[in-house]
Amino acid sequence: MAEMQAIRALLKEVAPRLLAQKNVLATGVGYKVVNGQVSSELSLVCSVENKLNKSDLSAKDQIPIEMNGVQTDVVQSGRFRALALPTERFRPASGGVSVGHYEITAGTFGCLVRRGSELFMLSNNHVLANSNAAQVGDAILQPGPIDGGTLANDQIATLEEFIPIVFPDGGSSCKLANAAGAVFNVTSGLMGSHARMQVVTTRAVDNLVDAAIARPLSPDDVTADIFQIGAINGTAEGVLGMAVQKSGRTTGHTQDVIRQIDVTVNVSYGSQTATFTDQLLAGPMSQGGDSGSAILSDQKELVGLLFAGSGSSTIMNRIQNVFTLLNLSL
């Protein structure tokens, strides 16, 4: 207790000097992290936007190893921002916030992806392409229309490409936003619809993904970070028991585990049903409007694209299938 009080008193004395140094965003008292593990040693913690090499800092901006006999610790935190709702307007917009084709309600911007040197916004077909009913070049709004986005003020991108959803009868789902039907899509929950998800063992016409990309009007309008999570740390294969997380338009940051792999599932899109194979299934970590969310591991590796579910389950495309079919990378 005496040690803690002494370190807190020291922090009050040195905090102004530390905060004046380049890149330091916050100071506090915490346990020092050594080789990725939290130790029992109290330290003066300096949060920085990005960790820099000593050679990139002047002598006066280098944080000393200790101060008055107390160890220091430097933690990369990213820039701190005032928290906002994912339904608000963001420029730049990050993954996890409201987005949608101008004729739907709203879904979720998954993440930024690349095709060669070009940047694109990734989400679902039924979020960006109105369940097959849109045309390439159509306006994409952020926030989505139900969250106040308008063509006049809030267009952030244009539809670039989508993988058509194949239905057994060869048709496409209804163009009206309140008839689009994947359980956690842009309408269920938002418009009062009640679509259903059922895991099946028989196979009809198979789909691998519900996915689309949009071209930002300006690269400055988007950022690679995920709202409430931060930067993506590569990709990984989703495996049974993997801890996963997402940030979505409706339920924000939620976590669960992959409970089933190799899932074949019938997903209702209004009056029609599409069969998807090679899907991943997690628990109840999403609701209406979360469709399009990027699914990350607990190490922030991208593993899936959320598109459907039920009251007890969440269904996601394997990100490897999404990237292959749309020729994408991070």
Question: What's the arrangement of secondary structure elements?
Answer:
Elements: H1 2-19, E1 24-34, E2 37-48, E3 66-67, E4 70-76, E5 93-95, E6 98-101, E7 107-108, E8 111-115, E9 118-123, H2 125-128, E10 139-141, E11 155-162, E12 197-199, E13 206-207, E14 212-216, E15 222-226, E16 243-248, E17 252-269, E18 272-282, E19 294-297, E20 302-309, E21 314-318, H3 319-326
Parallel strand pairs: 2-4, 5-15, 13-18
Antiparallel strand pairs: 1-2, 3-4, 6-7, 6-10, 8-9, 9-14, 10-11, 11-14, 12-17, 16-17, 16-19, 17-18, 18-21, 19-20, 20-21
Description:
- This protein is mainly beta and 330 residues long.
- The protein has two domains: 75 residues, GMP Synthetase, Chain A, domain 3, CATH 3.30.300; 234 residues, Thrombin, subunit H (Beta Barrel).
- The chain is built from three helices and 21 strands.
- The strands form four sheets. It has a seven-stranded antiparallel β-sheet with strand order 7-6-10-11-14-9-8. A six-stranded antiparallel barrel has the order 16-17-18-21-20-19. A four-stranded mixed β-sheet has the order 1-2-4-3.
- A hairpin with a 3-residue loop joins strand 16 and strand 17.
- It is elongated.
Strand content: 35-45%
Distance between the termini: 48 Å
What's the CATH architecture of the largest domain? Beta Barrel
Number of strands: 21
CATH topology call of the largest domain: Thrombin, subunit H
